[in-house]
Amino acid sequence: MAPTLATAHQRRWWMASTAVIENLLFSAVLLGWGSLLIMLKSEGFYSYLCTYPENITNSSTPGNNTEAESYIELNGWLICTEQDEMLNLAFTVGSFLLSAISLPLGIVMDKYGPRKLRLLGSACFAVSCLMIAYGASNPNSLSVLIFVSLSLNGFGGMCMTFTSLTLPNMFGDLRATLIALMIGSYASSAVTFPGIKVIYDLGAPFITILIVWAACAGLVFFNCFFNWPLEPFPGPEDMDYTVKIKFSWLGFDHKITGKQFYKQVTTVGRRLSVGSSMKNPKEPAALQDGSKLCLSTVDLEVKCPGESAASPSFMQSVFSPILLLSLVTMCITQLRLIFYMGAMNKMLEFLVDGDLETVSLYTSIFGVLQLLCLITAPVIGYIMDWKLKECEDGTEDPDEKETNPGGKKKKKRDRQIQKITNATRAFAFTNLLLVGFGFTCLVNNLPLQILSFILHTIVRGFIHSARSEEH
Q1: Contact 362/448 with Cβ under 8 angstroms?
Q2: In this predicted model, what pLDDT tens digit does every residue of 74-89 receive, in sequence order?
Q3: How far apart are CA 113 and CA 160, in angstroms?
Q4: 180: how many CB neighbours lie within 10 A of its CB?
């Protein structure tokens, strides 16, 4: 039985804390592809694409380094360039779903709510782990399952990420901080595969690790089943949950929130006022007003033509220049970041002349640095919320504005202008770091790549947090 919104509000801290942990372990784990790639090679995925050279003695001669590098054994399995290309293609498919599925997921979540989507996502993630484990049992015949499993992994991870971004709506003034924390945990999930690789290097069987991980995804399924409500969480412009719960005795539909809720409560007040004035014949104006009012709670909704005319349609918003430019820059940046993660192992192999131990070490360093997202993501949330409390919403009455001791009214800055200013600052700062990352990753210096790892992690956390705050 799904809990109500009131019950979910009482459990909001439990839901938020578990969502952070679930994002860390299940959301965008494909971002730690470098570590997973090494484990898949060690388990023999697509190793049948590699063949021994015809003259093995030639591979050890100093003048034939290319052939020697192309035929290396890892954990008893041959590894080669063809294997890398096929596995990276599977990563491309999974990472594409991780990013491109956002719009369809948003449409589905608006219709069905986050609960069903999160249940589906956790189930898909568990199935993906079991499929990888099944493929590892016989990689010569079942390596192709890696395509399906990474696709399900990317889809399930994005489902859990997307649904967790609705939770901060229950926290009022802490909404920006919670969103930044959710984005930080999503970006830090790249640390999961490096952590699993550490366990793998200690001797734990790869199949056992994946089965345990699938069981943990099952716990996510049951946590969502017992704690997440069927109804979607109201947006940031809506009233606080506690206000809505206190007025539940009025008998309104439980999905009514925000401005619509306020209008209906105001209409009820007017009805009560008109009802009392009808007993007094000296107030005919109230009677005329009362003739226009609805006499049932079904028709209490008040439509304001001014608001509908002022708010743009969905298609107008989609094709607005600001949104289109934002989409273009986001796509280019995301492509650059994901390309770096997919090609990182190859770049490191080039810098260390094929030393796999050094590559593994730097891959683990990259994974550990992903935890920086949990620290840096709230910074961009703070920039986005800078001085918003000192601004006016434009909805308050002139008499309610603060006044100076001399009787003059204080002129506050418009809230929307402050939001745009904050977003501009966050965007400029993020792109400055992105330019720095572009320079450092081009320098053929191995220790300098640690700085590239740090900038890559910070930019990824910043750009997702900034985009979430903007919308």
Answers
A1: no
A2: 888 888 888 888 998 9
A3: 12
A4: 30
